[in-house]
Structure formats: C-alpha cells, structure tokens
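[User] I wish I could look at a protein chain and see how it folds. I have put the entry right below:
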Amino acid sequence: MTRSFTVRLAVAFVGMGLAGALLTAVLVNVAFDRRFSSYVEDRREQGERELLAALRDSFVRNGGWEAEDLAGLEASALMSGLSFSVEDNVGATVWSSSDGRSSEMGAMHREMMGTGPLGPARRLLVEINGDNVGLAEVRGTAGGLRPDDVAFRASVNRLLLGGGLIVGVLALGVGVVLARRATAPVQELTNAAQARTDGDRGRRVTLDRLDEFGAMGQAFNQMADTVEEEDRLRRVFAREVAHELRTPLTILQSHIEAFQDGVSEPTPVALASLHDEVHRLSRIVADLEALASADAAGFTLERRPVALRELLQEAAREWDGPLHEAGLGLELDLDDGIVADVDATRIGQVVANLLSNAAKFTSAGGFIGVELECVDGWAVIRVRDTGCGIPPEEMAMVFGRFYRGRTSRARGSGIGLAIVKQLVDAHGGAVEARSQPGQGTVFTVRLPQA
C-alpha cells in the first residue's frame, strides 16, 4: 500500500512543531523551577532574618529572654511558615513553639494552610553587638513550598501544557497547508505524465515558479516537445521511406510484368535500369542497418592504430568520380603522421556520410574540402562545403534521427548524420557543425589520438 508523501510531510511538520513546543516547555519549566526554588530559598532566608531581628529586639527590649514576649512572635513566624524555639547562651530552653498550646496552634495553622509537616531544623546564633546571647532552632515547611506557591507552579505548568497543545494544533494546520503546496507541483507533473501515458501527447505542465519545481516543469515540457518532435520525424521518415521504397518497387514490378506479358524484351538497357533500382533499394536498407548497428557500435568496434591521412585519401578516391559527375571539386589538406586508435571501417563510414551530406547540399560548380590536423592531442577531421548552409533554427536538429533538411535537393533517409554522431561518440570523440546560410557548412570530428 502506497503512503501519501503529502501525509508524511504534514506529519513531519506536526512532529517538528510538537517537538519544538515540548522542548520549549521543558526548558521553560526547568528554568522556572530553578528561579522558583531560588525565590523560595530567598524567602525562607528572609523569614529567618526577620525572625532573628525580632528575637534580638525582644532580648534588648526586655533586657533578656522573656517567654511571654517570645510567644507573641509565634503568630508572625507561623505566617512565614516557620516554627522556632529559643535557648539561652548556656543551652537552657527559654521557649519552644512545640510546647503545649503553641504546638497545637501551629499544627492547626499548618493544617488550615495545607502546608504539611515541618522540615529539618536549622540552628541560628542570636548575636547582639558581637555577643552570643542565645540560639534559635528554626524549622520551615518541608520542601519550602506554601499552598499558594504550589498553586502558582501548577498554573504555570497548565499554561505550558495548553500552549503546547495550541502549538500542536497550529502545526497540524500549517503542516497540512504547506505539505499540499509543496507537493502540488509534483502532483501536477504526475498527472501530466499519466495523461501522456494515456495518449494525451499535447499535455504540458504550467509551473510558473523560479525554484527547482519550476525547472523540473520546464525540463518536462522540453522533454515532451522533444518526444513530440521525434514522433513527427518518425512519421515523416516512415512516409519518406515508404515513398523511397515504392518508387523502385513500382518500376521493378512494371518491368517484370512487361517481361512476363511479352510487352517488352529484357534488353541490356532494361536490365541496367532494373539493376539501378535494386541498388537504390539496397542503399536504403543499408542505411537502416547502419543506424541500427551504430547504436551498438561501442560494443562492436575493432580498434587499432590507424593512419588517418591514408584513410581519408582512400575515401577521397572513392568519392572523386561521383563528385566529378555532380560538377563538384574536392580539395584535400591533410597533415601527415596523425594516428588514432579507431575502427577504420567505422571512421571510413563517418567520412563517407559527411561527404555524401556535403554533396547533397552543394550545387554544381562548388567544392568540398577535407582537412586533417592535430589540436591539443586530438585528431581533428573537417569536412567543409560551399553549399546552401543550414538555417539557424535547424542547427539543433542536424544530428537527430530521421531529420532531413528542408533545403535538401536530394532525397535521403535522414539518418546519415545521426549515424556519424553515434559512431564518433562510440569512439569517445565529438562532432559538431558550424554553418552560415548561403556560405556553406563545416563538420568537425575530434578523435582521441593513439
């Protein structure tokens, strides 16, 4: 079962929000406890200081310790959550709040205030002008917290808990909104891809964004445009191939039927015409086979050190006759001593395709040049012509399969240059074209030297 990325992203937002709220609550609670404990301790010390001041005042006022006067201090001590007893400077107990009625009143007060039992005793010296006049044993509420302190701390904890819940709800809402917005472009791309799978070839995405999703949408649209253009070229290619095959087949059929019906005789001229048509069919089939084999050329290359000057001279000799018949000149400018580790047959096919392409686009009276030189460790072959050139809008499609230039004067399969690129790439090289309309074209092939 697939899990929605939107749900997972929303849960992640909620988790981060709750984790942040929980961490904040814990840190605030820890800091609050420290400050509150410090506050309780300061208040206890303040109460002890006030009690000692009251005891000193009682001693001075009465000229010594008076139990009745000390009993009068019990009420204020109880309000501070303290219980005390006093000993004189020889250790005799003068007064204690744990005796008799004072003890009962203290217990009733603690029960009424809900402060709980008393904590451990602290023994404090009572000094006047540096002289020790007695000892006060002071006991405070266990834990140092009064009911109002406990209530205040509980209210703070409830406030933090409520704040955490509110943050969690807000994180849920914000997480859902952000998750949907974040995954909306992905969903649109998914829908567009599914639509194309279902046959809607014109489906595009509209992501007017400047982020990665916008770039993804542009890449998707460019891919769709490329696929659509390739489909168009395949249809054009199928139509062209059908036309190319139909013409020689029609001629062959008509001549053979004429021979069978006795309408005409299989004279040498008629047979030569049929031979030309068969050769034309063979050329078309060979082009298709070459394109198929070029895809796997990287696995079938028979590499060896090849002197490129001799290879180009041989190709020039093979094309000298056809170019001369077409009224085209052929010029060679070949550096010597350049050796490349290549498949000689495949590179010969590359040169033949480039010369054939140049011949198709060059009018009688023009010339084709073949150059060879070494540049930065690369063997560079250039085939230039003085033909009609390639329009700028067609340059990006020159090496595409099934592509035939609109200015071509001769029929062709439209795969010659695609084969060139496949074979050069298989050798680890590169091929590029430069052209100016009306001024000719230059194809440059770079091959790694041996």
Remarks:
- The longest strand covers residues 118-128.
